[in-house]
Amino acid sequence: MPRATNAVASRARRKRILKKAKGYWGSRGNILTVAKHAVDKAEQYAYRDRRVKKRSFRSLWIMRINAAARENGTSYSRLMEAMNKKNIDINRKALAEIAVKDPAAFSQIVKTAMG
Hints:
about 120 residues; mainly alpha; about 75% helix; about 0% strand
């Protein structure tokens, strides 16, 4: 009895990996074994960096809030402490957006929290 290799499935598997490696530099884009390693590593980086992205955005929001808070005569940490004491619940993303787009409204928030 002849050996069955299921060529359709194995071709599809190779095609899927090479499709993911499309545009990679040199042999990473067209040689299966090299492409397989490159795609695996790329997927590891993608998984890790989906989490890192959240951290870096939070850090960006904090920098923006701090800069706007200092223009209003306080610091980020003092502002957040005052907001927590007054039970002003605005998340950092929204607060950073207000600080950038509407400085007057941000000043009102600072006055309410600090006053």
